[in-house]
Design brief:
By secondary structure, the chain is mostly beta strands. The protein is about 5% helix and about 30% strand. The protein is built from one helix and seven strands. The protein has a seven-stranded antiparallel beta sheet, with no helix packed on it.
């Protein structure tokens, strides 16, 4: 993961910032969001099938390959050459959307299927990022 160093200063005078008391608190977004750095990748959601659990088109997905997959997890998988983000039902071998608009997708023995990792976090950008264009 590439770290982008950013120095922030409001430059406002006349009153003390309410955040002044918290200037010494260390905060690392890497540590907050990523549990296993060497086994983590970041993807971007596409479509509306996962909106019922709060994953919207364009959201950033933090996917951990180290986490053991359990039924009910949100996963990123490769199904017949296409990356999908779905809820996995391991017992019934189904990929589920969180929207009733979409039918469950069975994973058959003849399908080319691999679980790429578990979605452990999702992030919504409220303004477009130049890092995500293209």
């Amino acid at each position: 993961m590439r770290v982008i160093p950013i120095a922030a200063s409001a430059g406002i005078t006349g009153f003390e910032s309410p955040a002044a008391d918290y200037l010494q608190l260390p905060l690392s977004l890497d540590e907050l969001l990523i549990e296993h750095p060497s086994a983590t990748f970041i993807g971007q959601a596409a479509g509306d099938s996962m909106q019922g659990i709060g994953i919207y088109d364009g959201d950033i997905l933090i996917v951990d390959r180290h986490v053991a997959v359990q039924s009910g997890d949100v996963i990123v998988a490769n199904l017949n050459g296409e990356f999908v983000c779905k809820i996995i039902d391991k017992n019934r071998r189904l990929l589920l959307s969180s929207s009733e608009k979409y039918q469950p997708v069975p994973v058959n023995e003849w399908d080319a299927f691999s679980i790429e990792g578990v979605v452990i976090r999702s992030i919504r950008c409220h303004r477009p990022s130049h890092l995500l264009r293209g």
